[in-house]
TrEMBL record:
Annotated NCBIfam families: NAAT family transporter
Entry similarity comment: Belongs to the UPF0056 (MarC) family.
InterPro entries tied to this protein: Multi_antbiot-R_MarC
Subcellular location as annotated: Cell membrane
The UniProt record lists the keyword Transmembrane helix: yes
Protein's name in the database: UPF0056 membrane protein
Main subcellular location of this protein, as a coarse class: membrane
Keywords from the named record: Cell membrane, Membrane, Transmembrane, Transmembrane helix
Length: 200
């Protein structure tokens, strides 16, 4: 019973941080031109990338950062810069550099970066799972991450219906709105990284 309570609390916290619902407009803007089968494939690849990323950092995150001489704060700054660039392109209505074609390699590349990392499994999520592992049963932490990954897939996959209902104009409007939100998220991510790096 205690394990179930921990699972629910961790799931709720990680869901809020990864915010897969907030990623849907970005996902739609990137895959709107693809057939439904490909959209589901991208959603599946994103969820797998989120799963692998969070489990990896939950188990050996500390050693990864130490090995490369990096930190979560540096990751936050780099991720923020990437999201800022993407957000600016979305604001201008230009998704040429982040849109994907139907080639398998490109599908995998964009599913991992920037959709899975850092949009969903960003610095906040990585830090959270690393902290969970030090405080909770690692098995429950892994089960929580698996549940989040499945949730990501289900939510992104359902975005296909939203695309069909919104139409091309709705997608363009949503893309620009999300671009503004994404740039603000990116700036905040960079600010948090700078604060952490310089102990401000």
């Amino acid at each position: 019973m205690e394990g179930l309570k921990s699972f629910i609390l961790m799931y709720a916290g990680l869901f809020a941080i990864t915010n897969p619902i907030g990623a849907v407009p970005v996902f739609m803007g990137v895959v709107s031109h693809l057939p439904i089968e490909k959209r589901h494939e991208v959603a599946r690849k994103v969820s797998i990338a989120v799963l692998v990323t969070l489990i990896t950092f939950a188990l050996i995150g500390q050693w990864i950062f130490k090995f490369f001489g990096s930190s979560v704060d540096a990751f936050a700054i780099a991720g923020g810069i990437l999201l800022f660039r993407m957000g600016m392109e979305m604001l201008s209505g230009k998704l040429s550099s982040v849109k994907i074609d139907e080639e398998e390699v490109t599908l995998e590349e964009v599913a991992v970066i920037p959709l899975a990392i850092p949009l969903i499994s960003g610095p906040g999520a990585i830090t959270t799972v690393m902290l969970y592992t030090t405080r909770e049963n690692p098995v429950i932490v892994i089960l929580t991450i698996i549940a989040i990954s499945v949730t990501v897939y289900l939510i992104l996959s359902s975005g296909n219906k939203i695309i069909e209902k919104m139409g091309r104009v709705g997608i363009k409007v949503t893309t620009r709105m999300m671009g503004l939100i994404l740039t603000s998220m990116a700036i905040q991510m960079i600010i948090n990284g700078i604060k952490g790096a310089f102990n401000l």
